[in-house]
Amino acid sequence: MNNKTERLKEYAKMLINKYGSPLYVYDYEMLKKRCEDMSKLQKQLENALAKKVRMHYSTKANSNPYILETVKEAGLYVDCMSPVELMINKKCGFKNQEILYVCNNITAEEMKLVYESKILICLDSISQVDTWGKQFPGTKIMVRINPGVVGVGHSEKVITSGKLTKFGITEENFEELFEVAKKYNLTIIGIHQHLGSLFLNDKIDNYIMGVKAGLNLIKKHFKNIKIVDLGGGFGVPYKPEEKPLNLDIVSEKLIKVLKEFVNEYQSVEEFKFEPGRYIPCEAGYLIGQVTAIKHENGQYYIGTDIGMNQLVRPSMYDAYHEITIFGTKSEEKIQANIVGNICESGDILGKNRTITLPNIGDLVVVSNAGAYGSSMASNYTGRLRPGEVMIYKDGRIEKMKDRETETNILQGLYFPKKYKI
Ligand SMILES: Cc1ncc(COP(=O)(O)O)c(C=O)c1O
Question: Do 173 and 98 fall into the same domain?
Fold first, then answer.
């Protein structure tokens, strides 16, 4: 158990009793610290480059208004990818120019909403540029390119550049992009790229290579670009042996390539980044409880109420999360698969973990659950999504989200008349 989870121990039982199990819990101080890291990086880059630099927190990682409030207090901006995320961003007080709409395969109606909201849009295919141009000729847009190099990410499913991804426009299609833009008198004011999600220190150079590849394409093909958006990807350590991302090194290396770019490409006025995971990930925990213990075919299974619907990362990406079990007094060490309550073989929270034999009812704490945790949760098999709370330094607890109720799930569901409920 590390210090962070140790601190949670004093609260965990009380929280579960009050707000139900499982429950997402966030540590405000950690969240604030990670926001401050990003504003520090923003300032370092801005000072070194003498250009505007803006960090747009990627709402998809966690869209809870309490997270967004902290992001806003740190002076960061946001990006969003859907009408609901946009609505939440606006409600949290972000101004139009502080929001960026980074979307993928959206309808003409959704584009209209973005246009009417006066939010800068980033379009990621020629087809989408065409759909936009038809409706809003003569406007300014950003486009997402695929810099061609293989991106960086913790799983193939989150690598978003290279030959195997649905994202962005590749160099061979730039001419067609320019034709479509010209047809509708669109001005491409910004270029966006996002290489993938999660790089740590061993992949900083790959990230920088990807950045260089994108910048080279801009220099070679695009004229008069004002905004260069380099996306997100800043990682956090999930495994005990992993080290935190050294942002000073990232900053130093970025400054070098961006300075060269700025010297050669005069029109650029602003760099943007879209950190998602980095900000809320380490602040978040998912607390649940042990519901069953079984030993079959030589394998221990520790059943919990934390199903893949509550935290999908382990089953979706084979992602590792630290799991701590509170409460056991046993000295007996076992190797166990820690699993959820969903009827799927892939519903495994942690494989082959060495733990002490727990008891039913012991609390289970999953670390690093603050990003792509609650935002990816679902009602699969009719399970209720958890409540969420924030813990502040002085011990104050704020409810961020109610635990769902059966009524929430049944709302909008129609039953044939003969099934009276
Ligand atoms: C376009 C875009 N920007 C930013 C992000 C945030 O990425 P991360 O959470 O790795 O920082 C994502 C997530 O994959 C994304 O798709």
Answer: yes
Q: Which domain holds residue 86?
A: 77-273
Is the same domain home to 262 and 327? no
Same domain? For 116 and 244 the reply is yes
Residue 336 in contact with residue 309, Cβ under 8 Å?
no
Alpha-helix runs per DSSP H in 107-190: 108-116, 126-135, 174-183
> Residue whose CA is closest, atom 5 of ligand 1?
232
Residue-level length of the chain: 421
Rounded Cα distance, 297 and 418, in Å: 46
Residue 421 is predicted with a pLDDT of: 63
Q: How far is the CA of 135 from the centre of ligand 1 (A)?
A: 28
The answer to the question of residue 103 being in a domain is yes
Per the structure, the count of domains in the chain is 2
**CA–CA dist 198, 234 (Å, integer):** 5
**180 conformational bin, left if phi > 0, alpha if psi -120 to 50, beta if neither:** alpha
Residues 265 and 243 in one domain: yes
Indicate if ligand 1 lies below 6 Å from the C-beta of 28. Answer: no
414 falls within a domain: no
For residue 347, what is the domain's CATH number? Answer: 2.40.37.10
Question: Helix (H, G, I), strand (E, B), or coil: what is residue 323?
Answer: strand
Q: Which residues pair with 337 in a beta bridge?
A: 301
Residue bearing tokens 């009719």: 382
Measure 59 CA to ligand 1 centroid, in angstroms.
Answer: 9
Q: Mark which of 273, 305, 339 sits at the end of a domain.
A: 273
Using CA atoms, how far residue 93 sits from 51, 123, 183, in Å, is 25, 24, 36
What is the Å distance from ligand 1's center to 224 Cα? 26
* Element containing residue 256 per DSSP (H, E): helix 247-264
Q: Which pLDDT score, from 0 to 100, does residue 1 have?
A: 55
Q: Is 153 in the pocket of ligand 1 (CB under 6 A)?
A: no
List the helix and strand counts (H, then E) for the chain.
11, 17
Residue 419 forms part of a structural domain: no
113 with 254, same domain?
Answer: yes
Q: Alpha-carbon distance 182 to 314, whole Å?
A: 45
**Nearest to 402, CA basis, from 16, 92, 14, 19:** 19
Residue stretches of the chain with pLDDT short of 50? none
CA of 89 to the centre of ligand 1 (A): 16
Q: Could you tell me the pTM of the whole model?
A: 0.96
Where among 250, 273, 296 does a domain terminate? 273
Residue-wise pLDDT for 263-286, tens only, equals 999 999 999 999 999 999 999 999
Task: Note whether residue 33 is domain-resident.
Answer: no
